[in-house]
Fold this protein.
Amino acid sequence: MSTPFYVSPQQQMADRAEYARKGIARGRSLVVLQFADGIVFVGENPSRALHKFSEIYDRIGFAAAGKYNEYENLRIGGVRYADLRGYTYDRDDVTARGLANVYAQTLGTIFSSAAEKPYEVELVVAEVGETLEGDQLYRLPHDGSIVDEHGSVAVGGNAEQISSYLDQRHRDGMTLAEALKLAVQALSRDTNGSEREIPAERLEVAVLDRTRPQKRKFKRIGGRQLSRLLGAQGDGGAEETASEDAEDSE
């Protein structure tokens, strides 16, 4: 009778983590930034049907890098959780912190289970507050841990280099145009230090805008509005886009 092959639990977890990281690294990076009036999501995504960013609830947005079918399942589960909790209790009881805890439990259970492979995803859950201090950003890696972020966060294949670039240049109180340009500059940097151009039509951009009069603060930005923002100087670009809120909102 042959002796079963033994692998230590530590080595198993290390192998599963490496597998998940390699899967996430194959996807394009994305960034989430705070600005004066809310939170902006920016990523390179040539598809107009498969979104990296989505609305979960009134003030809560979702961003994901990695395997689409896996993070889409998580997004749908988050929407169901938020709808059920808001209907059962109160809309104000649906928070990014609660949603992040649910995702952490799900990802942690899958990661530690020997019966299935770990999810190749990295998530960001964001909630816009009444003020800048009330904003919440949570990053959830593949293993289900939760990282409370402030200012900016990057996930995906080149996240470490992008995060370092953003940490040096991001500041509180930036306009939407300034935050958007900084995000594109960060995403344009390759691992070897060179820069490439990302055309506006290859960008997916969304915001949680605290100044919107509607209860739902999430909206997508694209087309002429995005082009004007990328070419705007100072506050002028953000002021121009305010009048287009109804046109470009979902």
In short: The beta strands are 30-35, 38-44, 53-57, 60-66, 121-127, 136-140, 147-149, 152-155, 203-209, 218-221. The longest helix spans residues 68-88. DSSP finds eight helices and ten strands in the chain.
